Amino acid sequence: MRRRAVAVLSVLSLLGLGYLLLFTPMVGVKAVEVGKTTRIQRNEVVELAKIPMLRSMLLLDTDAVEQRVATLPEVDSVSVDRSWPSTVRIEITEREPIAYFAAYDGIRLVDREGVPFHEVATPPKGLPHLKVRTVATDDPATRAATRVLTGIPRRLAERVDTVVASSSVDVVLRLSTGKVVHWGDAERMGRKSRVLAVLLNRPGRVYDVSSPELPTVSR
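Structure (tokenized):
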């Protein structure tokens, strides 16, 4: 009888502890912290996260929270962690712009994957203007243009004012100096970059390295 009583008390104790941990504010969420962001407001993140305050941390579905926050266009990646006993921390890596796109409904930043992710009032300084028919991750012209922008040497990229891509094999760079570079496709980036570095020392306005074996310079 004594053993049975001890066993019953043990079970009841475990059930009681489980109830306290799962259904009372003992380890309930009391704070939501959002890591530093540049273009995303904290209230946007908290609203999307939909984390019930005072609900047990053990019942929090962190994967579901991450999926909800990831729907923000500016989010590249997100992680949600429990900081015991009562804080949920959300860390966000934002998309980095490499260009901007002027659409009919506004100006948006574009990342290296071709994702238009943030609307701005005016063209940002220091970023080239991306000109394609439609900015999208599955658009061949967009993919070629972003590959070229991220693949050329930094010193050249800083001089690019506009990138025009009518197709995946017709990328054109317009430099801030007024010079125009016919780049072609996004292949043989290193070869084209080396050839162009030599050509730019020659007088001219239009430089064609689309076929790096037969480059041309014209006025």
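The first strand starts at residue 31 and ends at 34. The mean pLDDT is 89.
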